[in-house]
């Protein structure tokens, strides 16, 4: 199994930069920097797209610029055009059910209330069989606070924990491409940030 497309989810625009909901695109940019892949706007696919090599394997990086709840409008047509199967896709996104300082790989499953994942599943022909790299952001105290919580920036202590998890996630990408998803999963899923 080879990952041919890595998507980092988030919302476009400076007001959303480094918000909790943009953790996916933050990690995507870290991958692009580490492996020298430039990501540029591509209006044909409603996203910012780059193509390059990770550990000797060709891969496409994409940030859908459609806003989160329409992420599939970018990823679906891109995967279709380049004949990329769902199981060759890795989607990096924020995850409410994981605390800050933790990141985990997962294959398949429902959207779990994440509108970006919901859109991708729909645009891949109702297929859930793609890989996810989930960056924990924790949950607000009440549901009423949810929108402001995900669109807001984490406080300094939380941001530091998330940054550690993002760096661990970046390291695991190298393991994924040099070894396999199982080894990368074992390494990352056992990681916990230190306060």
TrEMBL record:
Its EC number is 3.1.1.29. The active site is at residue 21. CDD domains: PTH. GO terms for molecular function: peptidyl-tRNA hydrolase activity; tRNA binding. The record marks 94 as: Stabilizes the basic form of H active site to accept a proton. TRNA binds at residues 16, 67, 69, 115. InterPro entries: Pept_tRNA_hydro (IPR001328), Pept_tRNA_hydro_CS (IPR018171), Pept_tRNA_hydro_sf (IPR036416). One of its GO terms (biological process) is protein quality control for misfolded or incompletely synthesized proteins. Keywords: Cytoplasm, Hydrolase, RNA-binding, tRNA-binding. It catalyses: an N-acyl-L-alpha-aminoacyl-tRNA + H2O = an N-acyl-L-amino acid + a tRNA + H(+). The record marks 11 as: Discriminates between blocked and unblocked aminoacyl-tRNA. Transmembrane segments: none annotated. It holds the Pfam family Pept_tRNA_hydro. One of its GO terms (cellular component) is cytoplasm. It is found in: Cytoplasm. Monomer. PANTHER family: PEPTIDYL-TRNA HYDROLASE. Belongs to the PTH family. Catalyzes the release of premature peptidyl moieties from peptidyl-tRNA molecules trapped in stalled 50S ribosomal subunits, and thus maintains levels of free tRNAs and 50S ribosomes. Hydrolyzes ribosome-free peptidyl-tRNAs (with 1 or more amino acids incorporated), which drop off the ribosome during protein synthesis, or as a result of ribosome stalling. This is Peptidyl-tRNA hydrolase. The lineage of its organism: Bacteria, Pseudomonadati, Pseudomonadota, Gammaproteobacteria, Aeromonadales.
